[in-house]
Write a structure and sequence with these properties.
With about 190 residues, this protein is of the alpha+beta class. It has three helices and twelve strands, in the order E-H-H-E-E-E-E-E-E-E-E-E-E-E-H. The strands form three sheets. Strands 1, 2, 5, 6, 7, 9 and 10 form a seven-stranded antiparallel sheet that branches. A three-stranded antiparallel sheet has the order 8-12-11, with no helix packed on it. Strands 3-4 form a two-stranded antiparallel sheet.
Length: about 190
Amino acid sequence: MSYQPDHNERIKVALYIKQIVGGRQTVILANLPTVMSLWKKVRIRHGGDSIRTNSATRISAKQRNASYIRVNRVNGTLQVIQLVQYGRLEKILVCPLSNNTQWLGLAGKTLLLALIKPCQTGGRDATKEETRYSRNLASIITDLRNVKGVVGRVESRGEWTIIDRRNSFAKPAFDGAGYITDESEAA
């Protein structure tokens, strides 16, 4: 689907590309394509999650909201810091770059970009500790490869708790107390 990003989205794309290749944001912005493809869903390779953008998600009893995601990003050049973020996947933009030399190593390549509205979690990792949020931050652009999978959320008292199943920290446990199962009926 062809899509014309609005001015704010184009600025966010330019800021992201500036972090990679350097240069002036105004020059990058002037050379970005005005029309990009827009994807509404993607599947992570090798049996990974199917992820839908917020606009492609229809909340119903048969379908879960698969637009909330885990994002791992790397910050810094001298000291690499792995950042874990959670957020709502708003859009997936397909951004083809020209062969212009300003793009350096990205010249002639196509970028798959994720527009994400991050949850304000204070950098906590839901695979290691309870992670809650009640607000979202301003949207950002990152490489789609930084999206690691779908996460669940549970709302209680105006806050959302993130369920990230990538580790044993948030595994549900059921003891069967108070529930009738096939095994208990047979006894």
